[in-house]
Amino acid sequence: MSAPGSAVSGVPHLDVDPFDMNFFADPYPTHELLREAGPVVYLDKWNVYGVARYAEVHAVLNDPATFCSSRGVGLSDFKKETPWRPPSLILEADPPAHTRTRAVLSKVLSPTVMKQVRDRFAAAAEERVDALIERRSFDAIADLAEAYPLSIFPDALGLKSEGREHLIPYASVVFNAFGPPNELRREAIARSTPHQAYVAEQCQRENLAPGGFGACIHAQVDEGAITATEAPLLVRSLLSAGLDTTVNGIGAAVYCLARFPEQWQRLRGDLTLARSAFEEAVRFESPVQTFFRTTTREVELSGATIGEGEKVLMFLAAANRDPRRWDKPDSYDITRRSSGHVGFGSGIHMCVGQLVARLEGEVMLTALARRIAKIEITGEPKRRFNNTLRGLDSLPVTITPA
Amino acid sequence: MPAITFIHADGKSDRVETSGDESAMQAATRHGLDGILAECGGNAMCATCHVYIDAAWLARLPAMADDEDALLDGTAAERLPNSRLACQIMITPALDGLVLRLPERQV
């Protein structure tokens, strides 16, 4: 890793690879280096601009006309390369096309809909905790962070019970594919054919149970909001981004609460903090670490001039710990006012499933804190490597019931 | 700069100075006011900055957009005819003195 040098445009060039295994193992020193090098940096390894401070990340997210998504939100520029799959109609789209599809998913995942599924999600969380209390020792990733969303989300979508084992591997491909053409991405795409076939099939109207999120998306065709060819691709968005993200979000929250027992005790003392404990875990761990945008014109950003057609890498995780924005950024504090963090993004592309994520996180943390006195980590946590997602592969724990 | 007043569910009130270029939600969170959650950070997605507008002011606010209207159907506390989302109310000098009542809960 070299010190920031000076370049023609005055933008410091850094010799760091934020998609490298060593970086993934401990990204924090590099995040700091990126933040402190300047408001805008250039990464020679992948020929992209980067922003790691809160203000610039927030600014890029909130100027979609200049920093567009339709040329891909990964490194690959859809104007120059053929995407590995048909582009998303919402994530990889700009207004006005995005406005219409976004409205459909917002409606399907609205606060009103969350009220309807809340009791079901909470009951499933209680059931999961019952099972964990029986076992005492378990893997908090497989048996909790994965098992819980898998027990509710595919049903909420209305998926058939066969083939669900493709869901997490498919999401893993999607999030690896936003990265550069490294081994993680190449291997993920090479293995993706069966997962893609499964997903394409499940997105069809006849395969989605009535009343589920998937059927609600297709019902929007009848309302004239979207076409029959658009509906399956919007269902695909929920399959891509609705499961693995919440797995990593819940995994992050449990990992935080197990590492910081005083925060766990605070939560036990006041269960109304469950929702904010989850939100703070999303800030602190940032399960979605990065996204790219592409410039639609030459633009000046915090004194740096960026030409048209340049990729800009946003370090969401680094922004979420920028000391310019956050008091004691490296502390996990469940009473923090974390509103404004960019763990779900910001602006028109801000996570459309954020309410589902918060609901799952809140009811699960409430159920855990009500029933469990202590969570102890009993083995070395193992990290799962992905170009975009940050999370664990396993977290061995032993719990003491309350 | 225009100032606005939030009245909490327990009757206590807080007068908040605004910057002249922010929403009622932003002013509230900048001052660390309890009772406004704003989980989505002002992106009109979460309905956790629900407020009841004092009757005298209701007609003086900018009209509600469809997305705000839909979100208000999902608020945790009861939606009333004077319900609004604080993130959608930009505080202009004309709104100096605005009174907003906070619901008992936001989630």
From TrEMBL, chain A:
Gene3D superfamilies: Cytochrome P450. CDD domains: CYP199A2-like. PANTHER family: CYTOCHROME P450 YJIB-RELATED, P450, PUTATIVE (EUROFUNG)-RELATED. It comes from the Bacteria. Belongs to the cytochrome P450 family. The keyword Heme applies. One of its GO terms (molecular function) is heme binding. Keywords: Heme, Iron, Metal-binding, Monooxygenase, Oxidoreductase. The keyword DNA-binding does not apply. This is Cytochrome. Its cofactor is heme.
Automatic annotation (TrEMBL), chain B:
Belongs to the adrenodoxin/putidaredoxin family. Residues 2-106 form the 2Fe-2S ferredoxin-type domain. The lineage of its organism: Bacteria, Pseudomonadati, Pseudomonadota, Alphaproteobacteria, Hyphomicrobiales. One of its GO terms (cellular component) is cytosol. This is (2Fe-2S)-binding protein. One of its GO terms (molecular function) is metal ion binding. Keywords: 2Fe-2S, Iron, Iron-sulfur, Metal-binding. SUPFAM superfamilies: 2Fe-2S ferredoxin-like. InterPro entries: 2Fe-2S_ferredoxin-like_sf, 2Fe-2S_ferredoxin-type, Adrenodoxin-like, Beta-grasp_dom_sf. Its cofactor is [2Fe-2S] cluster. GO terms for biological process: P450-containing electron transport chain. It comes from Bradyrhizobium barranii subsp. barranii. PROSITE patterns: 2FE2S_FER_2. PANTHER family: FERREDOXIN-2, MITOCHONDRIAL, FERREDOXIN/ADRENODOXIN.
